[in-house]
Specification:
The protein has 304 residues and is α/β, with parallel strands linked by helices. It folds into 2 domains: 88 residues, no CATH class; 185 residues, Vaccinia Virus protein VP39 (Rossmann fold), CATH 3.40.50. 44% of the residues lie in helices and 16% in strands. The longest helix is centred in the middle third of the chain and has 26 residues. The two termini are 15 Å apart. The model has no long low-confidence stretch (mean pLDDT 93).
Length: 304
C-alpha cells in the first residue's frame, strides 16, 4: 500500500492545539464513563458538552437516534457562532471547532471531493460520446460532496455520467434528492436505491461501475471479516480498471470522547490493518492519502 499526505493549504492543519484540547476532552470522557456506569443513558452526558451547548446536544441526539446524516452535516458545516449565546458558542467551538476528529472530517470532505473529481476526470478523458461513466455512491450522506464535486467542473451537464445513490435510510436519500432538485437542467442521470449495503450483489444492478464510493461507512463495521466480505462483493461490481474510494478513521485517543461524550461509536483501523484486510480480497492496488491531521485517510483501491 502506497501512503502519502496531501499538505495543501486548503485544509485545517494546526496540530499544536490538539495537545491542549485532548487532556480536557479525555478528562470529560473519563468522568462521563464513570457516570454511565451508574446510569447508561443519562439525559445530559456532561454539563460542559450537551449541558451548555444546544448544538452539541443536537449532534448527540442525532447520533443516538442513528441519524448520522444530520450529525455529519452539523460537523461538516460548523463555524464559530454566538447565535445561542457566547458561552454556547465557545463550548460548541471547543468540541467541534478544535476537536481533531471534527477538523479531520471537514478535511476529509475536501480530500474526498478532490479524489472523486480526479477519478471522474480520468474516466471521462478518453470516453466516446456513446460511452458512459457509471458511478455507485454507497451512503451518500447529504450528497453535499457529490453535488459540489459535480458542480465545480460542470460535470452536472455531462450526459455521459450515470450515478446510483444507495442508502438503507430513506431519509438520507430524500435529502440528497432534495438538494439535487435545487439544480436546474441537469444532464447527469441519477437513480436512488433504498437498500442495505449488506444486501447488494451483482444481480442488484444491470451493469458494473467505473467508480464506487463508500466514504464513512466502514467505521460502522465492527468486525474485519465484514469489511473483507464487503470488499469482495464490491470487487464484483467494479469494471476492470475501476476504482473503489473509501475511508476508515485511524486509531486515536479521541475515540473515547466520541464513544462516551458524543455517543458516537466507531471502529478505528490503522493503515496496516486495512492493508491486511485488503490482502484477503482480490484487489491488487491501493493508495492511501491522508489529510494533514493524519486522522482520516482516503483509500483509492483499483481493480486491475
Amino acid at each position: 500500500m502506497k501512503i502519502k499526505t496531501d499538505k495543501s493549504k486548503e485544509y485545517e492543519s494546526n496540530r499544536f492545539i490538539y495537545y491542549f484540547t485532548i487532556p480536557v476532552m479525555f478528562l470529560v470522557a473519563k468522568w462521563v464513563k464513570r457516570k454511565k456506569e451508574k446510569n447508561p443513558q443519562p439525559e445530559t452526558n456532561s454539563f460542559f458538552f450537551d449541558g451548555l451547548s444546544k448544538k452539541c446536544r443536537k449532534i448527540k441526539e442525532a447520533v443516538t437516534a442513528r441519524d448520522t446524516v444530520t450529525a455529519m452535516d452539523l460537523v461538516d458545516n460548523h463555524h464559530f457562532s454566538t447565535e445561542n449565546g457566547v458561552i454556547d458558542g465557545i463550548i460548541t467551538h471547543f468540541w467541534f471547532g478544535l476537536m481533531k476528529n471534527a477538523r479531520a472530517l471537514r478535511n476529509r470532505k475536501k480530500l474526498n471531493k478532490k479524489i472523486f473529481k480526479k477519478n471522474l476526470t480520468e474516466k471521462l478523458k478518453n470516453l466516446s460520446k456513446e460511452e458512459t461513466v457509471d458511478i455507485l455512491i454507497v451512503g451518500p450522506g447529504t450528497g453535499q460532496v457529490l453535488i459540489d464535486s459535480l458542480k465545480e467542473d460542470d460535470f452536472l451537464n455531462d450526459e455521459r455520467v450515470n450515478i446510483v445513490l444507495l442508502d438503507k435510510y430513506k431519509i438520507a436519500l430524500d435529502e440528497v434528492q432534495r438538494r439535487i432538485s435545487e439544480h436546474d437542467n441537469l444532464r447527469v442521470s441519477f437513480e436512488f436505491l433504498n437498500e442495505d449495503v449488506f444486501n447488494i450483489n451483482p444481480q442488484t444492478f444491470s451493469n458494473k461501475f467505473d467508480i464506487i464510493e463508500m466514504v464513512g461507512v466502514f467505521e460502522y463495521f465492527p468486525e474485519n471479516r465484514q469489511v473483507v466480505e464487503q470488499l469482495n462483493a464490491l470487487h464484483e461490481l467494479l469494471k476492470d480498471g475501476g476504482c473503489f474510494i473509501t475511508t476508515n478513521v485511524t486509531k486515536d485517543l479521541e475515540k473515547y470522547v466520541l464513544y462516551y461524550v458524543i455517543n458516537w461509536p466507531s471502529k478505528f483501523r490503522s493503515t496496516d490493518e486495512m492493508a491486511e484486510i485488503l490482502q484477503e480480497t482480490p484487489f491488487e492496488h491501493c493508495e492511501a492519502t491522508f489529510e494533514p491531521l493524519k486522522t482520516i485517510p482516503i483509500y483509492e483501491i483499483k481493480k486491475l
